[in-house]
Specification:
Layout: H1 3-10, H2 14-22, E1 30-31, E2 37-38, H3 41-55, H4 60-71, H5 77-111, H6 121-128
Antiparallel strand pairs: 1-2
Helix pairs in contact: 3-4
Length: about 140
């Protein structure tokens, strides 16, 4: 199938498929005499693997490691589990950070009167962290 068909079948854009090919996540597609890419079932299976990995939040580097492990039938499942656990730790850290951001913003919203007056603690907080001390002439 051509790249458009592979894109529809995989749920990825043709641009992403070309990108994954360019960075080595996907083997270079076979080409027709006229230069069009042709994808087979193995390619579609790999694209599905990449898409699912990305949907789970793995970075491109991690996807590359997972692909290597997936393709190595002699791999230890402990290696896969370690990579997944590391990703879980990173997700948990992001969740904590997002929770802190939410709590800070919630506190600012609760302290903002939200009326016709120009005084706004949200904007004051944003301003307070944006710049170094102004240079005095």
């Amino acid at each position: 199938m051509n790249i458009g068909q592979a894109a529809r079948h995989s749920g990825l854009s043709a641009k992403m498929i070309r990108y994954y090919e360019s960075i080595g996540l996907l083997q270079a597609a076979h080409r027709t005499d006229s230069g069009y890419r042709v994808y087979g079932d193995d390619d579609l299976h790999t694209l599905a693997f990449i898409k699912r990995s990305r949907d789970l939040g793995f970075s491109l580097e991690e996807v590359g490691k997972l692909l290597t492990l997936w393709q190595d039938r002699q791999r230890a499942s402990a290696d896969v589990k370690a990579l997944a656990r590391q990703h879980i730790d990173e997700l948990n850290q992001k969740i904590r950070e997002l929770g802190q951001l939410r709590d800070t913003l919630q506190d600012l919203v609760e302290h903002c009167q939200g009326d016709h007056r120009p005084d706004c603690p949200i904007l004051k907080e944003l301003e307070s962290g944006c710049c170094a001390e102004p240079v005095r002439a």
